[in-house]
Amino acid sequence: MKKYEVTTYTSEETMKLAEKLALLVRPGAVITLEGDLGAGKTTFTKGLGISLGVTRTINSPTFTIVKEYMGELPLYHMDVYRLEDSDEDIGFDEYFNGPGITVVEWASFIEEFLPEERLDVEIKVKDEHARSITFYPKGSYYENICKELAR
Ligand code: ADP
Ligand code: MG
Fold first, then answer.
1. Which atom of ligand 1 lies nearest, measured to the CA of 35?
2. Which residues of the chain have pLDDT under 50?
């Protein structure tokens, strides 16, 4: 499976999709989220958090680049928007290879640091509530996850 596309019609549906995804990934998984402001990247991350048993409220990490949430597994939530014109390595590998799941908003800004194997997710706004969510798995591990997600 080279890509898998779903349309959601409510933020709850987007969260449910992310919850399902979180049950399929193992520690060390890296998920990137691309999409305009208000597309639903943070909403998607909240869904991951629910599945991972995070109880703290997840919100956009605007002032910090990484927020770490404890659940059954840690959830590392990165918003690298502010690194657009920088090539600074904030120790990405420690997160990507760590015991948790990493989610990166605006991942294209740190392309050079991203692991080759990862799950790229693109969220497009179709109308006020409809979102087209496309999963682009990079590597067979993530391809299998997408097959499961599509069941
Ligand atoms: P981003 O992190 O991409 O800037 P947010 O997740 O913070 O976006 O905001 C998405 C907004 O769109 C929220 O207010 C959410 O309630 C709303 N929304 C409406 N429909 C959807 C949907 N189908 N999926 C996700 N969010 C939706
Ligand atoms: Mg956000």
1. 3
2. none
